[in-house]
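User: Hi! I'm working on a homework problem where we have to compare a predicted structure to a textbook description. Could you give me the structure for the chain below?
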Amino acid sequence: MHVDTTDLRLLRIFLTIAESGGFAAAQGELNLSLPTISSHMATLESRLGLTLCRRGRGGFALTTEGNAVYEEARHLFQALDRFEQRARALRNRLSGTLTLGVVDNTITDPNLPLEAVFARFAQEAPEVVVSITTRPPSELLRDVVSRQLQIAIGSFPRIALGLDYTDLHTERQNLYCGRRHPLFDTDDADITVELAREHRIVARSYWGMRDMKLFAIAAPRAVVSDMESTARLILSGAYLGYLPDHYAAADTAAGRLRPIRPDLFGVKALFQAATAPEAREEPIVALFLNLLAAEMRGAGVSPAAASPPRPAQ
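Assistant: Happy to help. Predicted structure tokens:
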């Protein structure tokens, strides 16, 4: 006998009848009429070529064959239940690799709680391997477009078409000078764009050289590809340059750095999570983005509009 879905349904009805103690007792459980139950049992017995039960004045009773079929059917459905539970667990268990790109030096940013996100992600997807890459913003977007990365997190001066962007928060950046710089002891009221332009200003290649446009400088005296290089040049006392306030906070508190004219030079950089549209449908990507959004809401972080570079004054 080849068992199909109809046979499984008939066997389940038989199990209910046997465990209820008869046709009439099984009516409420099966929500079927007595004639329908009798018809189903007759069909099953015909399919098996066996008499499974007897009923009459002596009451309901399983035959010897009926008892044997009952035991086998019970084991069959227990195995099916285990199979369904296992398949459901496999379906719900996340596996694979999450490829994530993040711009450098965000660990001091209180508005980007990635550590908390990683902790929750490890709990909810313990079998997923997390692969993190740190690169400049343009390279991160390039890798998302080429599907080498599933998610890129950063402030992107240029937008790559065809990607989805989720606003995260805005990062405050200021123009800084080091303690040995000539402007360090100059009052903010005396500092203008023209005065700042007389000094060496660091150009950030990863920020699309926007710093030069702000000061209308054609040829930079220093070009960097990462934030730490910017900080080293500023701390030398020979250069001015942009840093996020959270990154510069420790050196500012120690008196090694000073922001210049935040009201004039300060900008806000919008941080976003960039993904390919189809990647957002992947379970591990969706989980990470949901956890990131939840952690940022929990921290009271809300995105705000970014500030474009100020025109020269």
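For your comparison, note the following. The longest strand covers residues 164-178. The chain has three domains: 5-92, 96-169+271-298, 171-268. Good luck with the assignment!
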